[in-house]
């Protein structure tokens, strides 16, 4: 276990943790770990453990206290406010603060032995931490709402859908979407709609029947439900209520129990299509045989929130400008990309529920998180947003798509999989796409290595909070674009024949080249002609690359068998700079493979894959035998 996992131990333990932050600039006195412990002791708090994640500008300490009562008291302690130290619970009213999660992942990534899978586990565990009081309130209020609806709709059923019930839900902060339906019964009579409009409270004495429920317009049912709920004292005491008569009309119930929790319930009627949309996302996550897509989707949403593409719950996470992206859109960008990676339509929304998602394996398609991120970012960086739109697996010209589906074009055009006359991304503005692409560019500029920094916009360039990597390439290294199928698990990495010949001529040195061939621009330690791994269990070897040339260089890793993966796959090195690369062998029957390190003068392009495609390497390749015993 790493330091962050040890710090929390379990969810109950995390509730005793607080975060202390202070700005170092313009302050006469800074605080060390020891200094903070002394302050806590002087103020009468019993601190069990602390970890630090400070920078030149800001001090940050995560502190575990003796009990929950102390955690509550310290957050409102005026003495700390006088010292200009901001304090809040680690698991705050609306879950983790984005910057707290990022800082903790940075701490976890300091351990050189920590694996990418562990880092992803740490991040997803952190961002799913939820205040138990919030969860309890939500459960109680949902039951109150269900009872209220059953008083108005005969055989009424409330089904939760959307973000709150999603497998990729971050934490409790989300509007709770509830779709009301009615189960069949024997009453076939239908009262005139005008009778309900004139006296909606008549439903409290004679609830709306199944036949009426599916005969009346949604908007009129919503108005009637609203009037009936307003008439109930319990609802007036517990909620602020209003109607929102939009494309799908809803009653909005805002909880008044703890206003800071910002809990809200959106009630729609006869809205099975939205329930099914939510199920498609859950089914897509569940069909991943390697069980990694859930964490990957959560990471990308977290990345988008951290970098202000999506808004967060806390004050410093709010958007100055709303770009109209949302998690639904981003999740479907992920689904579209994954289908392109598989070169197969994985989502068949109009098939029977049990058949509408084809089984797939994240590991077989991408061989790790970094490979997914690299290809996902490259795909949407190169996407032609101006002329093309997304329709499930397909990419179609916007004008044709608009004509086919009867929708208007927009800067980002994506047809809703189940509601095919709806452009799900219609409201995304041009500046939103510009920010999305800019964040991707900054992300791709960084090397793919184990780091916990997911932040681009406020703390500088991002490294992908890493994740394991193995980019699978075919022989001619097809370009990832909207026109081409992206690299798939069916494509095998090819080691050029001249590289194999070179090794045969002198198998004792990974750096030896034939007469007249280019010399490598990097050195590799440990040196030698082979690396030995365990056959039946996962094992890793750390290589150190060093730039031995007189100019900035770039490198690319290729391997001949999918049982081995590398992190990073691409990278750059300044003059004299060194960088670590992890080679991992996953349990398999593969015993031997070849690793080829391609290196070249840096071409100045953010997209390293593109640079290697368009230019011949200026450095000689290095070939290493990989042997599992």
Automatic annotation (TrEMBL):
The keyword Magnesium applies. GO terms for molecular function: metal ion binding; poly(A) RNA polymerase activity. Keywords: Magnesium, Metal-binding. Pfam families: Motile_Sperm, MTPAP-like_central, PAP_assoc. Residues 473-520 have a biased composition (Basic and acidic residues). Residues 521-629 form the MSP domain. Residues 470-523 are annotated as: Disordered. This is MSP domain-containing protein. It comes from Caenorhabditis remanei (Caenorhabditis vulgaris).
């Amino acid at each position: 276990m790493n330091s962050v996992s040890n710090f929390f131990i379990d969810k109950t333990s995390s509730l005793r943790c607080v975060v202390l932050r202070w700005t170092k600039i313009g302050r006469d006195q800074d605080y060390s770990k020891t200094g903070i412990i002394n302050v806590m002791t002087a103020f009468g708090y019993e601190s069990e453990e602390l970890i630090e994640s400070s920078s030149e500008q800001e001090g940050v300490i995560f502190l575990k206290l003796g009990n929950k009562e102390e955690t509550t008291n310290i957050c409102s302690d005026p003495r700390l406010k006088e010292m200009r130290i901001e304090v809040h619970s680690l698991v705050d009213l609306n879950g983790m603060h984005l910057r707290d999660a990022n800082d903790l992942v940075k701490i976890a990534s300091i351990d050189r032995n920590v694996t990418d899978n562990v880092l992803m586990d740490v991040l997803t565990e952190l961002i799913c931490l939820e205040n138990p009081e919030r969860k309890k309130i939500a459960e109680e209020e949902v039951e109150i709402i269900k009872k209220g609806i059953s008083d108005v709709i005969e055989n009424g059923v409330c089904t939760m859908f959307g973000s709150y019930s999603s497998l990729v839900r971050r934490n409790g902060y989300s509007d709770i979407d509830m779709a009301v339906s009615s189960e069949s019964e024997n009453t076939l009579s239908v009262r005139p709609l005008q009778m309900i409009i004139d006296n909606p409270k008549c439903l409290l004495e004679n609830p709306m029947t199944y036949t009426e429920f599916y005969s009346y317009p949604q908007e009129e049912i919503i108005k009637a439900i609203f009037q009936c709920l307003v008439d109930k004292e319990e609802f007036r005491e517990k909620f602020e209520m209003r109607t929102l008569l939009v494309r799908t009309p809803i009653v909005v119930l805002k909880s008044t129990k703890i206003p800071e929790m910002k809990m809200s319930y959106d009630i729609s009627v006869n809205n099975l299509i939205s329930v099914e949309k939510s199920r498609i996302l859950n089914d897509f996550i569940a069909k991943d045989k390697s069980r990694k897509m859930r964490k990957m989707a959560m990471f990308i949403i977290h990345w988008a929130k951290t970098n202000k593409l999506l808004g967060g719950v806390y004050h410093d996470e709010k958007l100055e400008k709303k770009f109209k992206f949302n998690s639904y859109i981003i999740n479907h960008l992920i689904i579209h990309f994954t289908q392109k990676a598989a070169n197969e339509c994985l989502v068949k929304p109009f098939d029977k529920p049990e058949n509408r998602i084809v089984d797939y394996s994240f590991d077989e398609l991408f061989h790790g998180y970094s490979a997914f991120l690299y290809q996902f970012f490259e795909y949407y960086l190169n996407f032609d947003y101006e002329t093309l739109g997304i329709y499930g697996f397909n990419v179609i010209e916007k004008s044709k798509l608009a004509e086919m589906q009867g929708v208007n074009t927009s800067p980002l055009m994506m047809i809703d999989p189940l509601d095919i006359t709806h452009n799900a991304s219609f409201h995304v503005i041009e500046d939103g796409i510009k920010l999305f692409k800019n964040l991707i560019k900054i992300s791709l500029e960084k090397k793919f290595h184990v780091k916990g920094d997911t932040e681009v916009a406020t703390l500088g360039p991002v490294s992908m909070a890493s994740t394991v990597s193995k980019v699978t390439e075919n022989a001619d290294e097809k370009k990832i674009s909207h026109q081409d199928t992206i690299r798939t698990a069916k494509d095998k990495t090819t080691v050029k024949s001249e590289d194999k010949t070179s090794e045969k001529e002198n198998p004792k040195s990974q750096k030896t080249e034939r007469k007249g061939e280019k010399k490598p621009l990097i050195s590799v330690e440990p040196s030698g002609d082979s690396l030995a791994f365990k056959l039946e269990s996962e094992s890793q070897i750390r290589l150190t690359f060093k730039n031995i040339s007189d100019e900035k260089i770039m490198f690319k890793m290729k391997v001949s068998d999918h049982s081995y993966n590398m992190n990073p796959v691409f990278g750059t090195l300044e003059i004299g700079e060194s960088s670590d690369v992890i080679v991992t062998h996953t349990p398999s029957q593969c015993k031997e493979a070849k690793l080829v390190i391609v290196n070249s003068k840096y071409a100045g392009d953010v997209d390293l894959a593109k640079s290697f495609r368009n230019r011949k390497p200026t450095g000689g390749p290095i070939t290493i035998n990989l042997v599992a015993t």
